[in-house]
Amino acid sequence: MGVKTKEKMKREILFRGARVCDGQFVNGSLVKVNGECDSNKSVPHIVVSYGPNTFDWFEVEPETVGQFTGMTDKNGTKIFEGDIFNIGAEDNIYTVKFDYGCFLAYEDDVQVGILAELATMFVKIIGNIHDNKELLQ
Fold it and tell me: What is the pLDDT of residue 1?
């Protein structure tokens, strides 16, 4: 009797963070390295791959680091932790947070649902909590 092997689940593990040097967001792999002045302090960096054996890495602001949810909005934009979105023609504004082991949608700091259960074909990213704080007021 043969043994069935499980297919490996393929999902993109991706992080985003704002570069310390200019505040621009970059997407890639998250690594933490020892700080130059304090070897006991871990400093987050995003590694951006441009192809085989070609990459850059950027120090990023720790509070801006967010993980890719594995989902995209109605325009194909990747949805990250910390993004701000609306749904369809609604005026309501929601944010994406990782809490309780999953990505959740919040409105005014009140959990309104699990992001994966929303019909993302109607979700539109309109900013993020770091660059667009005015959207949350």
Answer: 45
Q: Which residue shows structure tokens 């082991």? A: 101
User: In the structure encoding, which two tokens stand for residue 7, read together?
Assistant: 């297919």
Distance CA 18, CA 62 (A): 8
Adjacent-strand bridge partners of 99: 102
Instruction: Please give the Cα distance from 62 to 20 (Å, whole number).
Output: 9
Can you give the pLDDT at residue 81? 97
**More confidently predicted of 128 and 42:** 128
- Under 8 Å between Cβ of 120 and 73: yes
**What is the SS3 assignment for 122?**
coil
Instruction: Look up tokens 């919040």; give the residue.
Output: 106
Distance of CA 108 to the CA centre of its chain: 19
Backbone angle region of 71, left / alpha / beta, with phi > 0 → left and psi within -120 to 50 → alpha: beta
DSSP state at residue 63: G
Q: Which two tokens stand for residue 17?
A: 């963070």
DSSP assignment letter at 36: S
